[in-house]
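Predict the 3D structure for this chain.
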Amino acid sequence: MGAQKTIGRRMFVGGLAASGLSGQVKSAPMSPPPPPDVTRTLARWIVGAKYEALPEPVRKEALRTMLNWTGCAVGGARHETLDIAIAALSPFAGAGQATVLGRKERLDVMHAALMNGISSHIFDYDDTHLRTIIHPAGPVASALLALSEYHPISGHEFLNALVVGVETECRIGNAVYPAHYDAGWHITGTVGPFGAAAAVGKVLGLNEQQMVWALGLAAVQPVGLKEMFGSMTKSFHPGRAAQNGLTAAFLASKNYTSSDHGLEAKTGWANVLSTERKWDEIVGKLGETYQISLNTYKPYACGVVNHPAIEGAILLRDQYKLKTDQIRRIELRVNPLVPQLTGKKDPQTGLEGKFSIYHATAVALDQGAAGEKQFSDALVQDPRMIALRDRVTAIVDKSVHEDQVNIAITLKDGRRFEMFVEHVLSSLGNPMSDAQLETKFLDLADGVIPAAQARRLMGLCWDLEQLESASEIARAGAAA
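Done. Predicted structure below.
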């Protein structure tokens, strides 16, 4: 006796497929020559980008991005990772210029940006640009919000700078993905300084030459290795990227020079950090297409490639009223990226559990959820969870796309239930609704700030364009 179900429409979100080598080793393919002045062309667009030119759907997605990022930053504020970071670095921080969301501490702009970047990413619950797996808001919003309490930024200026920053980092990411990521770089940390520098430089009023220098300064500050996934250091990457982008923009604003070709030069960022480059991804159709329109938001607090298996597990659990003690084995057919990014078979901490397809599937079956509570140290170490995840197998199938999974559950009595998840929630064709984002926001804020304060903060995020000062969001997100 069994059951099979397919959900959603078939859709391929390009750009996540892992590259591989087989047979004889070949030299890297020659990249096409860069168009003249890639760095300057991008800088010219950043300087000239106007809020009034943003299409309404782009503005709306920017608001959704800001709401999601703020919720994640508040939600992560009490995690031990942030406690440790503040204890370690606050003795060396300057005057209390800016808020650390969800906390009482105020730090200088640079350290506040670092801390908000860490807290927004520690749960691995933040936004994802699926084409590159960049988490765009962390570096950009962390830098902008900290700056807003020191340098006046209106709501519409903030929104425009957020879009500009996301566009900058994601276009650069598009140009080098997947080769750059496959080499071991954590792409959020390596392109994040460009996004933060562009956004901060925009609101500081940098001219074209200064913006060229800011991008060059960002180019020499990449941060982040995939080796750090599952540790506290992964969340350090977007925080440091925010700091590095602020540094780049501040220095450039005072005419601190860099190469004029920081991106495209033979020894520039793209050629040093990647074996492949697609220059038109950076400069093609600037101002016509917007990468923030491709942003997505996680319904589950872990690596995005785990989401199809989680969703399939929860759907089968709920549909057939499955109990974990009934289950003999769980078989997954997954995209090749899944074992590469989330293949930890024996996680020891909650952070490591976020990078274990085995724990993610097991906890979804047992709990019917995969929020932050399901990735606690206690649940990862629970003997019941260990026994259940030992029954999970993940088989690589190149025909399975990144937002898909085939999950089959065999019970001890011989019954088998199977489902093909073809279009997971949070993919581009099945995005989270505004209502779902609000529910996520309030759940993250629960226990960190009072419910009334959380609702006010959420309203300010939605009303960002009308705010005289974007710093209202920072002040509203501080703990009493």
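The first helix runs from residue 38 to 48.
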